[in-house]
Amino acid sequence: MEDLLGPDLLHWNSTFRIKEPKTNQHAAWYQDTAYIKLKPFLSICWLALSSANSRSGCLRVIPGSHLGPLLGHSEGNDPDSILSRAQYINETFDQSGAIDIELAPGETTVINHSIIHSSNPNQSDDRRIGLLMDYLPTSAVKEGPRDTAILVRGEDHFGHFELETGPVSDDPLRNVEHQRHSLKAITKTMYAHSQHKPKGLS
To answer: Does CATH number 3.40.50.720 belong to domain 2-190?
Structure first.
């Protein structure tokens, strides 16, 4: 990630993307930049923890689309969507160049958060498990409420994010409460101006 983003790096978020076998769970075509306003950019590292192929509903992208404009998006109510807002691109665009990014367990791909991407249902006999890790240079600026991130390399000379710390206690319950602060901050980002209620936080 340092080769891509420079020596001063923040890790903003990690999320598991899990699709159960033989289900309709999917992600429609969308761009993360429609809802996560980060500049200059964010890189998403997609680590396969199980086989991610066309049959299991691997990541699909339209190469080069991160260089184009941000397209119009709408929120949906699709219960099979794995996205927080069931969002989707609501205008016509060229999908003819779409490719599947097939990964074996342990392999990784890195994408720009402006790229148009999606994933189809998992029609295999096994769970499709991926871990998404979001990285950005410390110089990056996010619109909206102040958020948190972990400094994973170099130094932060900008202070655009509140820097997270590691565990604060041997008591797991105290650590969970400590982590809730970061979860609340990122929830405000992920669900800003959304009709959907946040998942996972009471």
So the answer is: no
